[in-house]
């Protein structure tokens, strides 16, 4: 889902297009605290990041992480999806992605998949990031919570689950969507969402 929405323009030869009449500035940065209230849609209460080499079609693409040859998850920023939990502010893109994820979940349940506990996880602005994790800003409105040091996937999921339980707020999808209509979401490239 996200991989098709955030493509870098390429030339006919497959080379990355360069900026012509504007400065090419990077959004990549790290944050010791959450710079805005950021959200994540999850099917389960605990973190369920998975090894993306397994190519699980029934799991969220954004939750796939790359396991290095040493068997550990290293912090890494990718063009498509990075090695951690995806968080976004309440923007149009975030709403499109999470609404689609919720619809996919409902379709899966209608087709016989077991029910789970879908919810929006929010981390309030100003929440400190634990030393064991690093919050990367990768794009205008895309953040990932990744390990600060190489760690096993199971240990990363445990760290994330602990952080979510201690610092996160959980809201049922129907309630969150009623309180946050799409037309009131903010634009991704305008940083008005930093005020929230």
Structural overview:
This protein is α+β, with helices and mostly antiparallel strands and 196 residues long. The chain has one domain. It contains four helices and nine strands; from the N terminus they run αβββββαβββαβα. The strands form three sheets. A four-stranded antiparallel β-sheet has the order 1-7-8-5, covered by helices on one side. Strands 2-6-9 form a three-stranded antiparallel β-sheet. A two-stranded parallel sheet has the order 3-4. It is globular, with a radius of gyration of 17 Å. The chain starts with a helix and ends in a 17-residue tail after the last helix. This is Tse2 ADP-ribosyltransferase toxin domain-containing protein. Pfam families: ADPRTs_Tse2. InterPro entries: ADPRTs_Tse2.
């Amino acid at each position: 889902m996200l991989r098709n929405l955030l493509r870098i323009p390429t030339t006919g030869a497959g080379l990355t297009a360069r900026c012509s009449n504007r400065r090419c500035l990077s959004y990549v940065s790290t944050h010791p605290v959450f710079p805005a209230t950021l959200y994540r849609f999850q099917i389960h209460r605990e973190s369920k990041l998975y090894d993306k080499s397994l190519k699980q079609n029934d799991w969220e693409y954004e939750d796939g992480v790359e396991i290095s040859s040493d068997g550990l998850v290293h912090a890494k920023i990718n063009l498509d999806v990075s090695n951690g939990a995806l968080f976004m502010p309440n923007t149009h893109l975030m709403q499109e992605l999470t609404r689609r994820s919720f619809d996919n979940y409902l379709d899966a349940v209608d087709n016989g998949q077991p029910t789970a506990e879908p919810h929006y996880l929010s981390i309030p602005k100003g929440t400190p990031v634990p030393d064991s994790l690093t919050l990367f800003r990768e794009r205008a409105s895309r953040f990932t919570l990744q390990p600060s040091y190489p760690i096993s996937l199971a240990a990363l999921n445990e760290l994330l689950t602990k952080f979510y339980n201690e610092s996160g707020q959980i809201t049922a999808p129907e309630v969150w969507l009623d309180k946050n209509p799409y037309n009131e979401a903010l634009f991704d490239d305008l940083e008005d969402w930093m005020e929230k």
